[in-house]
Amino acid sequence: MGDPEYLAAFRTVVMPIAQEFSPDVVLVSAGFDAADGHPPPLGGYKVSAKCFGYMTRQLMNVAGGALVLALEGGHDLTAICDASEACVSALLGNELEPLPEEILQQKPSTNAVHSLESVIKVQSRYWSSVRRYAPTVGYSVLEAQRHDVEEVETVTALASLSVMAEKKRQEEPMEEEPMNQ
Predict the structure, then answer these.
(1) Which PANTHER family match (predicted)?
(2) Residue 35, SS3?
(3) Quick one: 3-168 is in which CATH superfamily?
């Protein structure tokens, strides 16, 4: 488990629910056990510091930016320091190092997709926002972004057609009804 899996979970479950819930403040228990650098018995995940920074930046769009990160654990000092630095940089509004192109193109693992589909199935009973993202759970970040752009373009085109049809309808002369005498 690494960046592609965490980014998929964040995009399809965490952020939609957070935005729908619309909290006043977001509290994050930042243990960084998933940070790349922890040996397998202590986590073994491969989430990069850049990814932690990216997720922090995304969370800043919730609750008007009222976001608290509480460092609560971790085992590898270098991994904790790197992840903490990326998160603090995000909180300070500093420009973040972009995620590598290969990460943006990588799809989440099959096991992660199956797990996320199960989570979405359960959570969609309570949070309607996750339904919208269910079809894209197996997408890479770039595929999901393209899908979102295409969706917006489709909605915009349909709205434009609707406005044009209404305008045409308003411009057509109205038939006069014969007056009874």
Answers:
(1) HISTONE DEACETYLASE 7 (PTHR10625:SF42), HISTONE DEACETYLASE HDAC1-RELATED (PTHR10625)
(2) strand
(3) Histone deacetylase domain (3.40.800.20)
d(CA 71, CA 79): 13
What is the distance between the alpha carbons of residues 36 and 145, in angstroms, rounded to a whole number?
A: 25
The CA distance from 96 to 9, in Å, is: 21
How confident is the model over 119-140, as pLDDT tens digits?
999 999 999 999 999 999 999 9
Beta strands in the chain (DSSP E): 26-30, 67-71
pLDDT tens digits, 63-110: 999 999 999 877 889 999 999 999 999 999 999 999 999 999 999 999
Domain map (residue ranges) of the chain: 3-168
Q: Are 142 and 99 in contact (CB under 8 A)?
A: no
Measured in whole angstroms, the distance separating CA 41 from the mean position of its chain's CA atoms is 29
